[in-house]
Amino acid sequence: GINAEYGVEEPEAEVSSEEEDDEEEVEPSLKYERSIKSDLRDRIFPHTKISIISVHEKFIVLGDINGQVFLIDHSGNIIRQINAHRGPVTCISIDSTGEYIATCSRHDPNVIIKGLYKESSERDSSESFRAPVYSVELV
Predict the structure, then answer these.
(1) Which residues does residue 127 pair with via DSSP β-bridges, in sequence order?
(2) How far apart are CA 36 and CA 138, in angstroms?
(3) What residues pair up with 113 in beta bridges, in sequence order?
(4) Could you please report the per-residue DSSP string of 50-92?
(5) Between the CA of residue 103 and those of 45, 55, 58, 90, what are the distances in Å?
(6) Model confidence over 35-58: pLDDT tens digits?
(7) What is the DSSP secondary structure assignment for residue 25, as one 8-state letter?
(8) CB 3.0–4.6 Å: which of 11, 92, 106, 136 could bond 102 by disulfide?
(9) Is 114 helix (H, G, I), strand (E, B) or coil?
(10) Positions of the chain with pLDDT under 70
């Protein structure tokens, strides 16, 4: 181009063939996603409906409409199954350490607290109340 201040033509900047090659060589990137939703529906729970899900960094806990509670890993493998309530599980709470879960259902008056590991399972408890419990929280 021309330098307007001095009226002198400036040489065009040269692009080396190395720089051109770098710009052209773009690695293709592949994105892989596994759909745990389809795994849950089709492979793991084809005969029930999930009523609630609670997620911890170590695992996922699912409650179904039949009162069952399922502890699964993040790949969708069932680790443990608990027969907890007479109707749909409506609330699941996981303590911060991931050692205990508490569940309740609007269809029975029980709150179930389960230890997920052998050492903590010795302290399992089930409390029954006069009326159904709608929510539970472990802190």
Answers:
(1) 111
(2) 26
(3) 102, 125
(4) EEEEEE-SS-EEEEETTSEEEEE-TTS-EEEEEE--SS---EE
(5) 19, 14, 18, 8
(6) 666 666 676 677 888 999 999 999
(7) -
(8) 136
(9) strand
(10) 1-23, 32-41, 43-44
